[in-house]
Write a structure and sequence with these properties.
Blueprint lengths: L17 H15 L12 H25 L9 H10 L12 H12 L1
């Protein structure tokens, strides 16, 4: 009996991007600061501040989504986090075995002589 393997998509907890951050920031600025700044175009000073804040929000949203995805064994991609999650689930991970290449090399050299 074949089991179906369900593909797991990374989850997005904010569903935010640069454009949605920018739109909300412009709406907020027009509501509360309409008497101070009226030009929020890309060429204006207000647009510069809005776009910088939207960029920071977009980058922070990306890293927040990445960190939340690293908390689940099915969506984690970083080896350190996968190892930590496996150890937390009770699986014992064996360390590396000692190397014996030097002994074999000496035996090989003795056979050649």
């Amino acid at each position: 009996m074949a089991s179906k393997i369900k593909s797991v998509r990374p989850r997005s907890y904010l569903n935010r991007d640069f454009d949605s951050f920018r739109a909300e920031l412009v709406e907020y600025a027009r509501t509360y600061f309409s008497d101070k700044i009226t030009d929020f175009s890309e060429n204006g000073m207000g647009g510069l501040f809005v776009e910088m804040a939207a960029y920071v929000g977009d980058v922070m949203s990306y890293y927040l989504d990445h960190q939340f995805n690293e908390l689940d064994i099915q969506t984690a991609v970083e080896p350190g986090n996968i190892e930590r999650l496996v150890r937390m689930s009770g699986v014992k991970i064996q360390g590396a075995a000692p190397a014996t290449a030097k002994r074999y090399r000496v035996q090989l050299l003795q056979q050649l002589v």
